[in-house]
Amino acid sequence: MLGPALALCFALLMGFASIFSRRGLQTGSFRALLVISLGVGSVVFLAMTAVTTGFAETPVMGVVYAGIGAIIGSVAGRSLYFLGINYLGPGKSLSVSATSPLYATVFAWLVLEETITPLVVAGTVAIVGGIVVLSKDIRTQTAEESYSNAVVLYPLVAAVMLAMAVTLRKLALDTGIAPIEAGTVNMVVGLVVVLPLFATRWRREILETDPTALRQFSIASTFMAVAFILYFVGLQITNASIFFPLVQTQPLFALAFSAALLGNLEVISRWSVVGSTIIVVGAALVVLG
Question: CA-to-CA distance for 268 and 255, rounded, in angstroms?
């Protein structure tokens, strides 16, 4: 049960990190958050790799799979994820992103050849049902803040990309690459991809980020880095179709932290709670499957 426990710890840390992300995004940009999170993650993972494996006898295909997963998940997926937090708040954005198990289940069956049981199907249906309930609350908030309902697409597309990323990361780990090495490739490749944008199009915007926002982003990024250490270790020893739904219990933690710490920065209604609860129940069914 170590793998599922690590997945839940990852969800808790990411839910907590989203609170600091949300605070920073009040005055800072998601681009600054993306660069800082990848930068902090790269430093943490490179330091840990240096004192552990040192990339000795690392499988080349493991590096390739982890690198592609980084581009899809850590750059494209995370960018959309941060935009979702900015427009919808951490609780609701994470709840929409929780549709990832639906896509991850399909990828696990088609690519990883994992067995899909009736309980897994039932859990997936429950997750989708939770999103339907949650969408009632999302429509209320977007109307209040003059946002188009299309902002829901940010976390939704991120969900597909994150599901693709977890499949690629599982393929990488199955080659024998160490979890800390896979995590290092994930962070460093992601950072290398965004650095040209930082040096050209994003430079002024990021350098002019409010110092308070930078502090919030740095705190969030530190929690994310620790969370991803648990992520890669847990994914190595657990089927993706079981591990990933547990990762998507983040909404439960994010909503709890939002209600306690964000005040009026995020509207929490009964629909938020009901929708997120259904999603968590669905994730539990997937695990039991």
Answer: 8
Count of Cβ atoms closer than 10 Å to residue 212 Cβ: 13
The two tokens of residue 15 are 């839910």
Identify how many contiguous H helices and E strands the chain contains and give both numbers: 14, 0
Backbone angles phi, psi at 176, to 5 degrees: 105, 0
Lowest mean per-residue pLDDT among 161-165, 166-170, 222-226, 274-278: 274-278
pLDDT in tens, 28-80: 888 898 899 999 999 999 999 999 999 988 999 999 999 999 999 988 987 88
pLDDT digits (tens, 9 = 90+) for 215-231: 999 999 999 999 999 99
Q: Which residues, including other chains, have CB under 8 Å from residue 269's CB and lie 6 or more apart?
A: 137, 140
DSSP the chain: -HHHHHHHHHHHHHHHHHHHHHHHTTTS-HHHHHHHHHHHHHHHHHHHHHTTTTTTT--HHHHHHHHHHIIIIIIIIHHHHHHHHHHH-HHHHHHHHTTHHHHHHHHHHHTS-----HHHHHHHHHHHHHHHHHHHHHHHHHHHTT--GGGGHHHHHHHHHHHHHHHHHHHHHHTT--HHHHHHHHHHHHHHHHHHHHHTTSHHHHHTS-HHHHHHHHHHHHHHHHHHHHHHHHHHTS-HHHHHHHHTTHHHHHHHHHHHHTGGGS---HHHHHHHHHHHHHHHHHHH-
Q: What pTM does this model have?
A: 0.83
Q: Are the C-beta atoms of residues 42 and 183 closer than 8 Å to each other?
A: no
Do the beta carbons of residue 87 and residue 151 sit within 8 Å?
A: yes
